[in-house]
Amino acid sequence: MKSQKRTTIYDIAQKLNLAASSVSRALSNSDKINAETKALILKTAAEMNYQQNAMASNLRKGSNPTIGVVVPRINQYFFSNIIAGLEEVTFKKGYNLVICQSNELHAREVAGVNALVNQNVSGIVISIAAEQGSSDHLQQVLDRNIQLIQFDRVLEDLETFKVVNDNHKASYEAVKHLIEQGYRRIALLEGPQELPIFRERKEGYLAALKDHGFPILEELMYTNAWTKELGAIATAKLLEMASPPDAIFASTSDFAALGVLEAATAKGIRIPEELGICGYSNEPFTEITSPSITTIDQFSIEMGKTIGDLHFQELDNSGAVIKKTVNIKPKLIVRKSSQRI
Amino acid sequence: MKSQKRTTIYDIAQKLNLAASSVSRALSNSDKINAETKALILKTAAEMNYQQNAMASNLRKGSNPTIGVVVPRINQYFFSNIIAGLEEVTFKKGYNLVICQSNELHAREVAGVNALVNQNVSGIVISIAAEQGSSDHLQQVLDRNIQLIQFDRVLEDLETFKVVNDNHKASYEAVKHLIEQGYRRIALLEGPQELPIFRERKEGYLAALKDHGFPILEELMYTNAWTKELGAIATAKLLEMASPPDAIFASTSDFAALGVLEAATAKGIRIPEELGICGYSNEPFTEITSPSITTIDQFSIEMGKTIGDLHFQELDNSGAVIKKTVNIKPKLIVRKSSQRI
DNA sequence: TTTATAATTGCAATCGATTGCCTAAAGTAT
DNA sequence: ATACTTTAGGCAATCGATTGCAATTATAAA
Fold this sequence. Notes:
By secondary structure, chain A is α/β, with parallel strands linked by helices. In chain A, 43% of the residues lie in helices and 16% in strands. Chain A contains 12 helices and 12 strands. The N and C termini of chain A lie far apart (72 Å). Chains A and B meet through helix 4, helix 5, strand 2 and helix 6 of A and helix 4, helix 5, strand 2 and helix 6 of B. Strand 2 of chain A pairs antiparallel with strand 2 of chain B, so a sheet runs across the interface. Chain B binds a DNA duplex through helix 2 and helix 4.
């Protein structure tokens, strides 16, 4: 029940017979104040258990040292890693992180972004929801001169920094690897083509086939299989074909790859001998399945850090920078599920 | 370069020849304003692209509809699930989440908590860092009448809501299960005993052994093995004993259990026939190892939701509530690594 | 000693929204 | 028609920190 009022700079000023402005200067380490006075104020502030009221400060300063993050799901390995990496950078700068999850819903994404705008955050970091809609909410962010950084799932048309993986290249490498391992009929599990990342992965797949003189077969491409369950269903369908694939590249996710692995194993198909598998994301579990799953590491923590660096770099150069796209090079992690040489 | 100033309620008031207070009332849906006027204001606000300045509002109201979260690591399955569950609840209430990670360091935990106090958040949700120190920072939270909810790793002495798993019971059940499966020399990988959760798990283990008339053997208890690597090392040591254990309960984490599985498999030991394994946390990967790993589900998303519910419940009853401990019942998930009957 | 300059400190406005209090107008009852 | 109650809306203080400008004091230069 001790609802002691918060100590304010006025309380400190009164106690020391000074003006609040002097207290403020002392606390913000200004040089417009005598060293002794400053020391005294600091000491008294500590004694009185002073904690700055960030709202008052931010209101007056017209800025808020906070970065807002909007991701589809907080508890997805890739996203939580992005956040962890980003937090690493922001913490060092004394910035806070406010997090929203869109749950892949456009309406929630809009609500989240608006809440962040209300808080006058200094930047918003976003990976857009699978359910897409108007991009007015993001345009508004730009209009209000709030830094906007998109990552992974980006809207190309918006002129913002973008931090993405080179999905095309990663996908290309994966398929090339499968080809080199002697697989000849390589199927693709593809994600929703509205999202550029999935389009790029498909293009990488196609390019690799083409460059190696392989035919492009529509029947080997399976749309929207990005969960374990859908991966398994897709696999069942693919393996029932007259001439089934001898490798499946689950470009959607490792979860889909896991579905492939389980469905194929259940059918008694030997991996990697009879069927090669490659996933995407390097989820921790890919290392410990049997066989372990070949996949692509996206360097998510690195990406998070890069996003943070970009934000502060842009802040310093105050808008004069060209909004560029940073490509993080993903890396093919070859494991047992695709090694038969 | 269009750095258009933000629209404020004054801009709206001026345009409509009204007082700012009326605009404020309209926007906050007060009943002290005429319905038509309200509609007009709302319409104009939308046209002028008005977004409330949350800082000004929060400063004036002396409160901030935000909950701060401090966890050891954002990108750990358990914690990111807690956050996801919590976010579910807070979003519905229009509250924001500010996230800090302590990285298991006390200093960072203190810094995070202080930042949250500065922001005058309405509540702080915390799971304390492994590296412990003074609890002054948390005491200060209480002194300032900010709701404090501890979860999972809690400081018993602080009088706050606590949301925890019944670690004792879960541990007891796990060991009971191993005994029922015919295992006779059950080893324990235990976590840092400064943290109550690990003490409780050990006590559950001891109680189960005792209740079933098993001897308590110091040599079967292995301290601080809570990563995959340490789990593997511990296993190697344990299996070298003259009479090695026939089951290992990795009470620290599933990662440790995975280490056990790998180390044992590498030695050619058959699981579950020759060695039973049980982990803790129901990490997604436990389902897909071979064999799959018996573990304990902590219902982390549920926990997150419960934390949120508690916060708002306490807010409504404004402090009159007794700060109680909520026990989430964990559940033993029996899988292949411990089933030999 | 006088004047110029620099170093400190105080004053008061400001950020934008909220809210208690007050007034005017409109509505209701007798 | 008079008195009383509602209703609507305005005024101005307030939340706590910051900051431009003014005032004061100390220091240096002449």
